[in-house]
Design goal:
Elements: H1 2-26, E1 33-38, E2 46-47, E3 53-54, H2 56-67, E4 71-76, H3 79-87, E5 93-95, H4 101-106, E6 107-109, E7 115-124, E8 142-146, H5 153-158, E9 163-167, H6 170-178, E10 184-188, H7 189-199, E11 205-207, E12 213-217, E13 219-222, H8 225-243, H9 246-254
Length: 259
């Protein structure tokens, strides 16, 4: 009788503890408002006059946030500042960075890229400048590049010996080239071709046909334990979008090349 009473008491204690735990277990994960930052990246992260953010990156983040029980708000700032905000923990997601050793040391990247860019040289029409892969051809040329952008390992090796200026936006780089302040502008076609058309410089500026490099663009997250769960959740959702073919469809919708 004594053993039976003890068993009954233990069962009662277990049942009471389980009853207390069930309401907690039934609660859904608390939703977060995530801050995603980036610079103006044509068709990847754009800002409309009505205050809406659009582009492939913004659309993907809305989908992934919704599917993980979160919401997302966006902020567009200069590219160097956007990277600093992520590294300092002031933002949850950075939209569109290419991988570099320095960035990989300071931030964590999504497992898969979500878009792809061609890096090329732009020159003025009739300049006579051709590039066939020999960087020595740039020795006596004035080159402008974008602040905070990555152009690949080959470019970084030869950059110290060149006459390099830095612009803070694609539009500034295009104008510097058009007005003969520089001889060559290095950029990606996705960002730059629409700006050239918008400024009416199609007859003045051309992209050289040889591609310097192909770069993949990713989402990046702070290098902190707090962001690990979010990164893994978003990795799972991005893999689903890739596997289902939805990323490819969205790439066509926004006219962005996907890997």
């Amino acid at each position: 009788m004594k053993r039976a009473a003890q068993r009954f008491l233990r069962r009662g204690i277990f049942a009471s503890a389980l009853a207390l735990m069930l309401p907690v277990l039934a609660l859904p994960a608390q939703a977060r408002e995530l801050l995603a930052v980036g610079a103006q990246f044509e068709r990847v992260f754009d800002y409309k006059s009505n205050g809406d953010y659009t582009g492939l990156g913004a659309e993907l983040l809305r989908l992934m946030a919704s599917r993980t029980g979160n919401t997302v708000r966006f902020r567009m700032v200069p590219w160097a500042r956007a990277q600093a905000m992520l590294v300092q923990g002031q933002a949850d997601i950075l939209i569109g960075p290419y991988k570099t050793p320095e960035r990989m040391a300071n931030m964590l990247f999504s497992t898969q890229p979500f878009y792809q860019d061609q890096i090329v040289f732009y020159t003025r029409q009739g300049s006579g400048f051709l590039w066939e892969g020999d960087y020595a051809a740039l020795k006596n040329r004035r080159v402008v590049l974008l602040n905070g952008w990555a152009y690949g390992a080959d470019w970084e090796r030869i950059r110290p010996g060149l006459q390099v200026s830095v612009a803070n936006s694609v539009e500034n780089g295009v104008r510097m080239l058009a007005h003969n302040h520089v001889d060559v502008f290095i950029s990606n076609r996705r960002n730059t071709d629409p700006v050239i058309a918008r400024l009416g410089y199609e007859k003045q500026i051309k992209a050289l046909p040889r591609v310097i490099d192909i770069q993949n663009g990713y989402f990046a997250f702070p290098r902190s334990p707090e962001s690990d769960n979010l990164r893994m959740q978003f990795d799972q959702e991005l893999n689903k979008l890739i596997g289902s073919g939805e990323l490819k469809k969205l790439g066509k919708r926004f006219d962005v090349s996907v890997p």
